[in-house]
Design goal:
It is a single chain. The N terminus is likely disordered. The protein has two domains: 76 residues, ACT domain (Alpha-Beta Plaits, 2-Layer Sandwich); 75 residues, ACT-like. Chain A, domain 2 (Alpha-Beta Plaits, 2-Layer Sandwich), CATH 3.30.70.1150. Strands 5, 6, 7, 8 and 9 form a five-stranded antiparallel beta sheet that branches. The termini are far apart. It is 25% helix and 38% strand. It is built from four helices and nine strands, in the order E-H-E-E-H-E-E-H-E-E-H-E-E.
């Protein structure tokens, strides 16, 4: 069928009904970035995000190879699929970046986070806080007559759930490390 034979208003061949290849749905992705361990690298990576208005939900950095002087930056960020692709492409163009892996799309991965939660309370609230800590496998790493500091590790969702249950029991303060993640298998 030639373009002249297409019926008027037909959506099958209309240039006005082209669908974009990316959706507008916000997705959360975990990116693992292997970089040289040298001054200014983290600032350049963070500058990429802040300069373009991208948000970082979680950020962890540590040296992973002392002899090779490389560090691993694990970034959890949210955006449309198009924005995530832009972030990965732009990270890959930074000179000290060796490799960018999107653990969210590359298969199954293991994600863990550490948190410390200070909970004040006495009486029944204190007993309930200890009971919940046991259920969540949180450890009391400090204790006074009026408060506890709990240490908990696990998926970010587990830590969120534990914190929400501790709020009415006297959660005062919380510190989180951010996500550390590795792909499963070889």
């Amino acid at each position: 069928m030639s373009p002249l034979q297409i019926k008027k208003g037909s959506s099958k061949h209309s240039a006005y009904n082209l669908r974009p290849t990316f959706s507008d749905v916000q997705e959360t992705h975990t990116l693992a970035v292997l970089v040289d361990n040298e001054p200014g690298v983290l600032a350049r990576v963070i500058g990429l995000f802040s300069g373009r208005g991208y948000n970082i939900d979680s950020l962890t950095v540590a040296e992973v190879d002392h002899t090779g002087h490389t560090s691993r930056i694990t970034i959890v960020t949210t955006g449309t699929p198009q924005v995530i692709e832009q972030i990965k492409a732009q990270l890959g163009r930074i000179v000290p970046v060796h490799k960018v892996n999107d653990l969210t799309v590359e298969g199954l991965s293991v994600e863990r986070e550490l948190a410390l939660l200070k909970v004040e309370g006495s009486g029944d609230k204190r007993v309930e806080a200890l009971r919940l800590a046991d259920i969540f496998r949180a450890n009391a790493v400090d204790s006074t007559l009026t408060s506890f500091v709990f240490e908990i590790t696990g998926a970010p969702e587990k830590i969120d759930a534990f914190a929400e249950l501790m709020r009415p029991l006297g959660l005062v303060e919380m510190a989180r490390t951010g996500v550390a993640a590795l792909p499963r298998g070889l």
